[in-house]
Amino acid sequence: MKLEASVASEPAVEIRQGVFRPDWSVATSVAARRALHGRIAARAGLLNQWSHRLEATGDTVWRTALQLYGASGQAPSVSDMAGASGIQPGRLADILRKFESHDLVAFNQTSNRIRLAYPFTESVTGHRVELNGHFLHALCAIDALGVAGMYDADIAISSSCVHCGDTIHARTTDKGRAVHSFSPVGAVIWYDFAYDGSAAASCCLAIAFFCSGGHLQQCLDLQKVRREGIRLTMDEALEVGRAIFGPVLSERS
Ligand SMILES: [Zn+2]
Fold first, then answer.
1. Do residues 126 and 113 both lie within one domain?
2. CATH code (residue 94)
């Protein structure tokens, strides 16, 4: 992965002119910054173009897919995207297939629809996000919180503690910039650094909510191999989500 210096001289990729990912300016807590450094270190050396700067048409396709996904609450079809972007369906399908090999989206060629575009998937994941009156499935806890930063909108999340299954709720305020409330009060997020080239297949399974630090620890103690990662509070995890997903639809930082 090619890293370029961001304005804050932390490692970041310029995903389009003047827009860097992650956006270090919103990650002010020590834990959020550690999580972002851990994420970058875990991905270094792997063929990962998720954060790579796309050529202009590709960037338009990526943004169109996510704008339609967020606005309609469901994965867009190629014809939806062609209508919104003015790009021919054949060219769109070619670009989507290329994105698939870079772990940016997953595309269902039978239905001609996207089936996954980070942070969303059509699969039922257990991380439910309410955005603009629609209910969507996010791939992991950070992706769920990242929806707020991506759309500059308030969201409500419901998920379950990985250890005991109790429901965890979280809600944002100030157009997704801050945590409004969450329950239970001790809820935490485990941010796992594992990455094998497909976030949906590796780290997203382990980036999850826990009802308490104790339940997270019990879950970690059960692992045969020690997990590399970091525990985050809800506020810290929102910062990580905003840093990763905020730049995606942004015109300029
Ligand atoms: Zn629990």
1. no
2. 1.10.10.10
Q: How far is the CA of 127 from the centre of ligand 1 (A)?
A: 15
What are the residues whose beta carbon lies below 5 Å from ligand 1 (ion)?
A: 161, 163-164, 166, 211, 215
Domain enclosing residue 76, as ranges: 56-117
Strand order in the sheet with 11-16: 4-5, 11-16, 19-21
Judging by beta carbons within 10 Å of its beta carbon (0-12, 13-18, 19+), is residue 236 exposed, middle or buried? buried
Same domain, 108 and 156: no
Give the model confidence (pLDDT) of 136-184 as tens digits: 999 999 999 999 999 999 999 999 999 999 999 999 999 999 999 999 9
Number of domains in the chain: 2
Question: Could you tell me if 41 and 131 lie in one domain?
Answer: yes
Q: What is the Å distance from ligand 1's center to 69 Cα? A: 31
Range in 9-13, 84-88, 107-111, 204-208 with the lowest mean pLDDT: 204-208
Backbone angles phi, psi at 129, to 5 degrees: -125, 130
pLDDT computed for residue 183 by the predictor? 98
Between CA 33 and CA 36 the distance in angstroms is 5
CA of 74 to the centre of ligand 1 (A): 30
106 and 185 inside one domain: no
**Residue 68 CA to ligand 1 centre (angstroms):** 35
